[in-house]
Write a structure and sequence with these properties.
Elements: H1 25-33, H2 48-56, H3 59-73, H4 83-105, E1 114-119, E2 122-127, E3 136-140, E4 148-159, H5 161-164, E5 169-172, E6 177-178, E7 183-195, H6 201-210, H7 219-249, H8 254-267, H9 271-290, E8 293-295, H10 299-306, E9 309-312, E10 324-330, H11 337-349, H12 356-364, E11 373-380, E12 385-390, E13 394-398, H13 400-403, H14 412-419, E14 424-431, E15 444-453, H15 460-469, E16 473-477, H16 482-491, E17 500-502, H17 509-518, E18 521-523, H18 527-539, E19 544-548, H19 554-559, E20 562-566, H20 571-576, E21 579-581, H21 589-627, H22 635-653, H23 666-694, H24 699-721, H25 727-746, H26 758-796
Parallel strand pairs: 9-16, 9-19, 16-18, 17-18, 19-20, 20-21
Antiparallel strand pairs: 1-2, 1-3, 3-7, 4-5, 4-6, 4-7, 8-21, 10-15, 11-12, 12-13, 13-14, 14-15
Helix pairs in contact: 2-4, 3-8, 4-9, 7-8, 7-21, 8-21, 9-21, 10-21, 11-12, 17-18, 21-22, 21-23, 22-24, 22-25, 23-24, 23-26, 24-25, 24-26
Amino acid sequence: MKTSEFRDIIDYKRIKADYDTGLTDEQVTQRIEEGLDNTPVEAPSKTVKEILSDNIFTYFNLIFVILSVLLIVVGSYRDLTFMPVIIANALTGIIQELRSKSVLDKISMLNAPVSTVVRSGEVRKVPSKELVLDDIVIFKAGNQICADAIVVDGNVSVNESLLTGESDEVSKKPGDTLMSGSYIVSGTCRARLEKVGRESYISRLTIQAKKTKKGEQSEMIRSLNRIVKFAGFAIIPIGIILFYQAYYLSHETIRASVQSMVAAVIGMIPEGLFLLASVALVISTMKLAVNKVLVHDMKCIETLARVDVLCVDKTGTITENTMTVSAVVNAAEGDDDDRIEGLLSDFAAAQDSDNETMAAIKNHFHCPAGRTAVAATGFSSEFKYSSVTFEKDSYVLGAPEFILKDNIRDHRELIDSYSHKGYRVLAFGRYKGLPDGKALTSAVEPVCFVIMSNPIRKNAPETFGYFAEQGVEIKVISGDNPVTVSEVAKRAGIKNAGNYVDATTLTTESSIKEAVTRYTVFGRVTPEQKRKFVRALKKAGKTVAMTGDGVNDVLALKDADCSVAMASGSDVAAQAAQLVLLESDFSKMPDVVAEGRKVVNNIERSGSLFIVKNIFSFIIAILSICFGMKYPLLPSQLSLISVFTIGLPAFFLSFMPNRELIRGRFIMNILLKALPAALTDVLVVGAMIYFGNIFSVGPNDIATASTILMSIVGMMILYQISKPLDVLKMGIWIGCGIGLVCCMVFVSDLFSISSMSNRCIILCVNFSIIAEPCLRYLTMITKKVQDFFVKEETKKE
């Protein structure tokens, strides 16, 4: 590892070489030995070996391997029916992580393989990764700046859109900073490298863009992990005690002891639930892809369904990306309209069409009067203006508050009248100094105001109306005038769009914290503030989704709970985001939210089927230990129950339409739904064991009867959670019932189903009848308990 990873560059003695001679070869060699070269940062993502290791060598895979070995040793091969689910779980996890790694590793913000450098008085071309601190590099039009530098000779215009999100040119002269990642648009300069390698701005940004958040999981996965952790602590001691009790105390054969122990342990692990969640998310991802929505991270489907704050930009989200000139308003009455149009045409002719605003102006003003431009500066995202110097005078065009400054009060009424209608107002005036792309120091005599507009997207009101209905709060974050953005947001139907603030007034953490919960529209927002807004909202307890399309949005996208990028934006934003709208159509968002809600609600409903078995197995295992009885079921019998009352129906039900709001917590919801059926299973199976012993019913008969009883209860709970019933759901229910019966009749040996004695049949029929009222009353009690907790939680809020 390079020394520069541990020591800051400022620890080293700087070399101020002359820009005509540059560093000597000896100095370059010394810099390389010190680790101060421009070697690009490596991706901090996992290696393929680490991904395989993390998904194969897990605690539960170890448990299942041990259980499988024990079953093989005792010759109980048919009880290995749980292994396909375990293998599928591991493969799904590996494929997901490899896919995420592929996306992260593609992130690249630099594309400058060769640079021109001055060394020992010679101009050479060297690989950019071999540049060192204090090198003198020559940058020309078209070059990407490969490391942070300071201009020491020459003048250039730079496009910093990769960093700021603004595609306008910024003029740079000696003493100005060149940020790595930006491009030279015009001119030539020599610059001294100030920060190289991982110390450069673009490298630090790349590291954070590629970095995956440790432990980042959706609520559903976190809940499943909690269940698994609980089972993980319980299965070892319970399994050991059950085997000891069966083999040493009850004097069962080693095969029977292993079989009962394995059945109890497997019954406590929701191995199929992880697979169901993964498969449901994979299929949802494929479905969204058909609708031109690319999902990089599957968990974002669930997260977006839980989002309660959505941060959006004005341009490209609320409005179309195109901009048009709507009107020109003269600053003084009596001015010649043709003269002003000719002046604006000459101004536009001297500028490049490097941003939407100037492209619109050049398209509108195309009747030049023939003035000759001697100098021009592109739009400065910092000082909010562009300029052209003609032979006799200079003119500037940009944000009124930056150009007119204190004199804006004379035109405030005019500007506000258009801003309040959602237009963007640009001031055009004669500058009494010589503009250089920096802050204006002389007075500006206003000539006219150019009224610009972005058309509202046709489906914007409908889209934002949907989010309002779903209780999702919208935050509009834009670099434009807050009044203009507010008016545009109103026209788009965004709730509380009249609450706006100028982000330039938010200078402290406390002011940002207060503003993000108070205001809906934020104008004049800087790229650095976007990330602060996201963090402040999350600290306020919100689940935040962020939309973006530029590199300047990357860090905010990474910090958001769910990140959405437009495909028409930068590649880096699209690669760093969890979700990409391939057609840059924001109206697709309701479909994504609906898909997420369908997945979460359906897995919550289907997941309760899995938890029934887990709760039952845990309680019966504890009772078996306490009362010295044998665990009643075999692994193969549990597999039969799992397939037809849990696995297959849960799989099909997870794809049913479901647009309900997500209510409550995932883990509490599935536990409360599963508890009545699990307790019913415990009561009827426990009674079957108790009375079976009284009437001298054999253990094989009790195991078969217990399997039938659990199957009946399983079909009851399946019927209950399938409501409201339709033809498809009824078909699933009937099909699973027929499958159960057919397996018990035609492949009974595979699932250890034996014929029962008359006494056992009578007991089984009685407890089957008892199961229905038992489940019904336990469900009623659980519902009342759930309603009580919901009321208490509502009171706290």
